[in-house]
Amino acid sequence: MSNVDVLEQLQLVLRPDMSDRRIVCVEEADTAKADMILSFYMWYVFTKTDLPVCMVGIRDTYGHYQNIGLKFHYNLLSMSNQKRFVFVESIMSIDGLVGCAQDLLKRYPTGSVYMVVDDISSLLLLGESLEDIVGFLMFSKHQPRLCLVIGCWKHKADESAKRLASAVSHLADIRVALAPLVTGFSNTATGTMRITTHESLFRIDDVSYLYKLADNGLKLTLNSGSVR
């Protein structure tokens, strides 16, 4: 299965075209990383829509995401030349994130816009409070044209990161939780990917995948049945 086939499969599950899935939490546990899922959303926007993307790289660099993009058959430099992509790496505060979102909405006064943040947990290490980060998420939920995709790190030994991950997951419309295999190393899988959507107040749907990261991209295997 090619990378594009995998991304098409992910699109069927994540359904980024649905208007009630604007806020996306990509939750990392332990050694798992959100970059592949953040890149999936950029692939979707660049190949399936004509919408713009602003990426805030608090942790990883432009070059890192350009390399993943080329594996997923899109080019960030080309998107930038078309005025559809901008990479911002100097934001170190919640005020900066709010200003970035406001500038993005002002620059594109009609239609939806995407903001991708890698990763918002890093702001805790930079001295921002949990309350201020949650305040940014509430601000984003009240911007109907803003689609927000957030990487968020969780570790069992870091209480602040766990509280933030719980808050982001609660406020998000859809959560993609990545974790390493509990059994350790495997030749066929890197970790698990659990996708949770809040279809209604009384219905929460989960589906679980095994995923394998390789030098040339990503492979997915749907687990037998749904996880409840």
Structure overview:
The protein has helices at 3-14, 35-48, 62-71, 76-81, 94-107, 122-125, 130-141, 159-171, and strands at 23-29, 53-57, 85-88, 113-118, 146-154, 174-180, 191-200, 203-214, 217-222. It is of the alpha/beta class. It has a single domain (3-222), classed as P-loop containing nucleotide triphosphate hydrolases (Rossmann fold, 3-Layer(aba) Sandwich), CATH 3.40.50.300. A 9-stranded mixed β-sheet has the order 3-2-4-5-1-6-7-8-9, sandwiched between helices. Helix 7 (130-141) runs parallel beside helix 8 (159-171). It is globular. Residues 224-228 have low confidence and may be disordered. Belongs to the ELP6 family. It comes from Acyrthosiphon pisum (Pea aphid). Pathway: tRNA modification; 5-methoxycarbonylmethyl-2-thiouridine-tRNA biosynthesis. This is Elongator complex protein 6.
- CATH architectural name: 3-Layer(aba) Sandwich
Strand count, sense and barrel status of the largest sheet are:
9 strands, mixed
The CATH homologous superfamily is termed P-loop containing nucleotide triphosphate hydrolases
List the total number of helices.
8
* Cα radius of gyration in angstroms: 17 Å
Which class of secondary structure composition applies to the elements?
alpha/beta
Structural features:
single chain, 228 residues, alpha/beta, Rossmann fold, nine-stranded mixed β-sheet, 8 helices, 37% helix, globular, ELP6, Elongator complex protein 6, P-loop_NTPase
Question: Can you describe this structure in just a few lines?
Answer:
This protein has about 230 residues and is α/β, with parallel strands linked by helices.
